[in-house]
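Morning run. Coffee first, then this:
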Amino acid sequence: MSSSTSIVGGGIGGFTLAQELRKAGYTDSIAIIDEHGFPYDRPPLSKEVLNGTKTAEEIRFVPDSWYEDNNVEVIQAKVERVNTDTNTLVLGDGSERPYDKLVLATGGHARRINGPGFFHDSVIVLRTLEDAQKLSKALVPDARVGIVGAGLIGAEVASAARDRGAKVILVDPAPVSLVPAVGIEIAERLHALHETNGVEFVNGMITAINHHDDGRHTLEVDGQGSIDVDHVLLCIGLVPDESLADSAELDVDGGVLVDREQRTSAKNIWAIGDCSRVRNADGSLERRHEHWDAAVQDATRAAASIAGTEPPQESADWFWSDRYGIHVEGAGSMVAEGTTVVRRNADGEPEVAFRVTPERKLAGAAVFDDSKAIRAARRIIDRNISVDPAQLVDPAVSLKKLTR
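And here it is:
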């Protein structure tokens, strides 16, 4: 008896799920439902789309013909709610669509602060292609752009804005960002790139965004006065989208709760990507991973669960980012119990940071412009290889050899 799988959300998670199902020999019908239409990649929104090196068509995962060739239907619509009594999706136009298996890949919404001016229409956030196109129009020479949040997205946009000739004021309450992700040593080196590239950094908390009739804005910084800017970008994190999960009465807690197969608390409903959060067998909750690779891994697990195939081997969490011509990557956890040791270059600057557990296992690593090092570190983590901290920090020791 044939059935259908409906995927709500066309990001990397939703697309990968459809792709993996077909690779696994799944022959039942598949539909991707997304209000933005054909699935496209999100990381270029803060990089190549802003600097003009990729168009809207070029960030689509595959040519449109792929969907027809693989019998994957793409429906441009907003899903308003899930009716688990009738196994139907209620769409924005009031119509209903039945499902047999449902996968929520809805991601999340840009986090905003519940303060004066933060929800004003002129405040830009960056989650969609439309957001990136709006932001791109603001990045003109000599425009003063206030970026609230110096994390991965904030730093990437600051870099793109400087390439476009805009003046950037970057505001964050943390004196150095990304310390939990990459360790203090790599984080400080990355942070120094802002000043080197002409970005003004303000260490403080924004308490209000005042909007003026001429379209300009004033950022009120707690204890530090005000900053006048032409445009404001707010990038202070993501709130997982739990709306459909709530309508289906699924278990949620800082994300839609799932098991190791990405199954939710309801039969025949899975959740993947930024909106999902793993609940372990003992009831403990894991941290959500808001990264491209994490969504891919979620999708491959869910596809195996739906198709009834062997689940893939899990790999250490991995992310990457680019700023000012520098590529940074991280794998695993840099906040796990243990100590951090650092491999430095000939000038004494940190190049690779490693988080080593008391049992001398590698828990995490972060690299400054060295993709080969992170690939080796990830293999060491995945293979649970014992490590010698002295070898990790010695530039003469090949990390690749340590993976054997």
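The radius of gyration is 22 Å. Good start to the day.
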